[in-house]
Amino acid sequence: MGFDALNEREQAILKLLIEHYVATAEPVGSRILAQKYTIGLSPATIRNTMQDLEELGLVEQPHTSAGRVPTDKGYRTFVDQLLELKPISGQEAQALREQINAEGSTAVEDLLEKTTRVLASISQQLGVTLAPRFDQGILSHVELIPVAQKKILLILTVKSGLARTLLVEVDVELRDAVLERTAQLLNERLSGSKIGDLHQNLKERVKDLTGADARLLKMFVNASDSLMGMGGAGALRLEGTTNLVGNPEFKDHEKLSGVIQLLEERTSLVELLQQKGIGEGIVITIGKEINLSEAEPCAMVTSAYHAGRVSGTIGIIGPKRMNYGRLVSLVETTAKLLSKQLKKMF
Amino acid sequence: MGFDALNEREQAILKLLIEHYVATAEPVGSRILAQKYTIGLSPATIRNTMQDLEELGLVEQPHTSAGRVPTDKGYRTFVDQLLELKPISGQEAQALREQINAEGSTAVEDLLEKTTRVLASISQQLGVTLAPRFDQGILSHVELIPVAQKKILLILTVKSGLARTLLVEVDVELRDAVLERTAQLLNERLSGSKIGDLHQNLKERVKDLTGADARLLKMFVNASDSLMGMGGAGALRLEGTTNLVGNPEFKDHEKLSGVIQLLEERTSLVELLQQKGIGEGIVITIGKEINLSEAEPCAMVTSAYHAGRVSGTIGIIGPKRMNYGRLVSLVETTAKLLSKQLKKMF
DNA sequence: TCTTAGCACTCTCCATAATGGAGTGCTAAG
DNA sequence: CTTAGCACTCCATTATGGAGAGTGCTAAGA
User: Relative to the CA of A261, which of A118, A218, B135, B139 has its CA 20 to 30 Å away?
Assistant: First the structure.
């Protein structure tokens, strides 16, 4: 990207401008920068630099005689080239550890719930987590357990130790031996496969299983959708919607409404987060880079976390005008703690 | 309440006024009522009646020369004395049945999810459901099922057929015989009791169980919180937040923010709904009657539903200015369908 | 006695200035 | 290359003046 490389002064001005705008939400003018920060330049000089930045598409004016405001591209340059990580405070780190390393939580669900909450409360933004992608996992074993007459508990366990259960009802009472036999056959046929693949073609893969109870097989295939599907609703957790509402960027009703709609609809958000959680490390996505029109005024800081072989995504969502330095540190630390805790649990 | 009994004309005017206000969200003046509805009275006469209604505290003027708007007390009188039920349309009834009576859903969770969604979509308001109050149920039996080494599945089943499961980890590997023995002892000691009572004093009730594995007992007691507690987050479902956002009463940012905060916080909403779901039949709660300041601009139409011996709550939440006649029918029908389906399932 | 036409009154809403202020771009001097 | 100075632009705020809606009250009519 050499063609839009910034000289030192341009970098300094852009950095100060964004930092000031993040703090105040007001367009920032040349005088403010000259006064507030001992930068050794007059407003006029700063104005010249600002014009350069505007020509590069990094800042813009809401109207002719207002100060400048960063554009998406400006934020992008800022986070790519100028970002200073600001480690979270001792207290905050403490709070994180208390929630995530707590001994009490036996279930992944609890842990994610707590994580989402603490993310929201420390960031003062919207905290999000996406449960581990079950469909990435390798099936370890299937169990069919008689619970009551006509009720069977299905358990799917993956290699890392994650499991999902589903209580289903069958039409007729089945003898334990039949259950055991079918479970055994299913295990022989299926274990070692990736859940995602199984989800695609389960019907094909079990249709020629002789010796298994046909009714039971059918039930298993039917149930597989809820067992192997990611279960959009359950997988996504959101906390801190309130934190968004206060932001000046959402005083426009349209915008707020759009974002709330997005959060409610969930599926597109789930897809988005899945995609952001593929790689390693922190991913920052700003404004239009999120390919959803309703999310235009927002930015996300996300990171993958790991539970054995499978991974999920955590992150925070807020207005573009967010404290990237702080939030990147927060999400990074949280993802690490979460992965560590999950490793300990399995 | 004889002292504020309304004469026929006052009733008619109040009814028309509220109906018109519900439709338009604009203060309604005397001329409109005289013109729009063939009421056989001149605006002046209507004005006189309106003054009476105002003295009774049933309507009020936003400002001196505006039309009238119903007060909470006005709505209350309307729903208590003047409400005409408007049966939902055939299409809507069809949609309800399709979602609720669907054969596919094996799990109560799915069913509630669908119910919440369809409530929201038909009402064009916020749909809410609260899962059956597990703690009202009578414990039928406990099961401890070895799933993998060091992993045990706990199942709590109540008389009606509802069950909850939890996968827990134990420090040491336990032999099946030990599990069976402990489960048997737990059943002898606990089954037949109300879950809510057990939740209170489980530790006391099992501490002298000789012959049971101590470690297993401790694990069971620890797990009881998540098994027997109502699990606020999981019990409450909300759909249709977007439907609220569009309403003119929420164009004031403060109000919208308050309601969103309320929805997010969940615990007070759960308590509220539990309380409304105690009796039988439809409960309408209007404005300040909901004892939560953030919910002041809202009204709720709720009803209990039943799953065997235990009950839950469903309902819709919207602005006070809602179509009570239609929504009462909707919630009533939905609660009946839901109870019927649950009965069928167990 | 109840109803209604008429009228003065009040208040909101909207559009139209008028003013002050913030911030810019440009020019010319240092 | 930097900066002081200045004209200029645009927004935000406030004031002003109808137009419109709806009321309360009074007095006349049924």
Answer: A118
